[in-house]
Amino acid sequence: MTEDILQAPTAATSTDGPATSRVTAEARRRRTFAVISHPDAGKSTLTEALVLHANVITEAGAIHGKAGRRATVSDWMEMEKARGISITSTALQFPYRAPSGQDCVINLLDTPGHADFSEDTYRVLTAVDCAVMLIDAAKGLEPQTLKLFEVCRLRRIPIITVINKWDRPGRDPLELIDEIQSRIGLRPTPLTWPVGIAGDFKGVLDRRTGNFIRFTRTAGGAKAAPEEHITPDRAHAAAGDDWDNAVEESELLSADGSDYDQDTFLGCETTPLLFTSAALNFGVNQLLDVLVQLAPAPHGQLDTEGHRRPAESPFSAFVFKVQAGMDSAHRDRIAYARVCSGTFERGEVLTHATTGKPFVTKYAQSVFGQQRSTLDTAWPGDVIGLANANVLRPGDTLYRDVPVQYPPIPSFSPEHFAVARGTDPSKHKQFRKGIEQLEQEGVVQVLRSDRRGDQAPVFAAVGPMQFEVASHRMAAEMSAPISLESLPYTVARAASPEDVDFLSRQPSVEVFTRTDGVILVLFSTKWRLEGFQRDNPNVVLQSLVAAGDD
Ligand code: G4P
């Protein structure tokens, strides 16, 4: 499955030669990825550092108002947090010229953080070719990272691991490597190894060249950190015992078979690993280079039949997220689509695969932080924002000329449940219609049972923020205000129809049918679920994250 990823595609469905080679060239220079991490691991800081190193900005901004740093590009993240989800940006695109002279385009897709963790966070991962798993050196793997990692694993997204905050006291690097391998079964193959323990970050051993890359701090970490590349014969003189330790540990890693291998990286068995201090801008250049040199370029997408539509085929894209304006003054709705093949030209009429109807792309936008500008052209790997696209839903396909249908985006396992009731009985019709719409847009999953009846559907969500959005939109947009009553469940599993009667008789368990027909059984806790499974080994319950996955 990996061999076609990095190689130049040979066959193209399009007949126009020069245009095809332009698409190939544009696709090959793109890297579309997301950072997966637990809140506070340093995602915003790293994002900003990447942009700084790509020379898009000249000085890192004060995400948290750090003295000596000026507010710049990342302020949008802070504002998003302050203003909630109304202006959530989705993709940050910037050009990057690699030291090799290669001109690249980096598309960094945002996976919203803690407060607004939602199904959208997972959906974004359906639109990337690679993920950077960012880990705090003192904390190791944390719950949200694990959840997001699980989605990457299911979708076979190659992962680059970054151990951040090495400038602070943290854990032993070999111990962190062991933790990754033993807990998630992904073998780290470090590309750099720290010189100096956590808290005393002098530089890294570049395991591919053998050189010592020495970093120098800049005031407040506002500028890219100067780096010197010191050959191994001079490295001991430069870093003493710290260098010798790094060399020794690197040799241990080699002896253990933990050297980088492209095939197993793309096959999701190994993960190249780097050490950084995003706050000091240490190791950020190395990450950019790894993205450019090793991460997969867009290589076409599998359709519902399992055939790959090559990147140079006529235009196609799939919608991975629909964002409705929370601000009642701006009831716009932006559908974000990832280009899978061909060239996007604004104004062109595409086909909406679900309905077969034409779709006009007059209102296409690109997003850089807070700035939105009209987008005229896009290539495979890029994200286009389609404004006023009321017919588009997550998972929908758009194409030109040659029809294609990409697989639906799976529904992810909800962990929050609440009964929704209309507070104004005269708005019964709006209530029903509103809920249907929110469900179709993927704002919440909707569950029903005979026991609770149609008047009291249950909303299910990955994050509680989805309830806030649903509640707000029901009142503001659908004129059908609702009240939500939380239910004491945290785990959902899919069950077969023949077990419904038995399951319905169990204490502290509730059975529902989701709108897509899947039967969901809800348990109060993971332990309760495990106890049930121990006592009833014949009842087959399936985990949901992979539901509908390709
Ligand atoms: P997030 O987006 O993943 O939630 O994390 P964010 O970048 O906001 O960083 C969380 C905290 O960790 C911030 O500190 C940030 O400065 C700090 N941080 C990020 N990367 C590094 C690093 O490499 N080294 C060190 N030492 N700290 C790092 P804060 O206390 O919230 O704010 P402040 O320190 O900016 O005042």
Automatic annotation (TrEMBL):
Where the protein is mainly located, per its record?
Answer: cytoplasm
Q: Which InterPro entries match?
A: EF-G-like_DII, EFG_III/V, G_TR_CS, P-loop_NTPase, PrfC, RF3_C, RF3_dom_3_sf, RF3_GTP-bd
Functional summary from the UniProt entry: Increases the formation of ribosomal termination complexes and stimulates activities of RF-1 and RF-2. It binds guanine nucleotides and has strong preference for UGA stop codons. It may interact directly with the ribosome. The stimulation of RF-1 and RF-2 is significantly reduced by GTP and GDP, but not by GMP.
Q: Which GO biological process categories is it annotated with?
A: regulation of translational termination
Q: Which residues form the signal peptide?
A: none
According to the UniProt entry, its GO molecular function terms are: GTP binding; GTPase activity; translation release factor activity, codon nonspecific; translation release factor activity, codon specific
Q: Read off the lineage from the record.
A: Bacteria, Bacillati, Actinomycetota, Actinomycetes, Mycobacteriales
Key words, A-Z:
Cytoplasm, GTP-binding, Nucleotide-binding, Protein biosynthesis
- Domain (Tr-type G) spans 28-299
This protein's GO CC annotations: cytosol
Which stretches does the entry tag as region Disordered?
A: 1-24
The record, for CDD domains, names: RF3, RF3_III
Q: Which residues bind GTP?
A: 110-114
Compositionally biased region (Polar residues) = 10-23
Which family does the record claim for this protein?
A: Belongs to the TRAFAC class translation factor GTPase superfamily. Classic translation factor GTPase family. PrfC subfamily.
Q: Where in the cell is it found?
A: Cytoplasm
The record's Pfam families line, in alphabetical order, gives: EF-G_D2, GTP_EFTU, RF3_C
Q: What is this protein called?
A: Peptide chain release factor 3
Q: Which PANTHER family match?
A: PEPTIDE CHAIN RELEASE FACTOR RF3
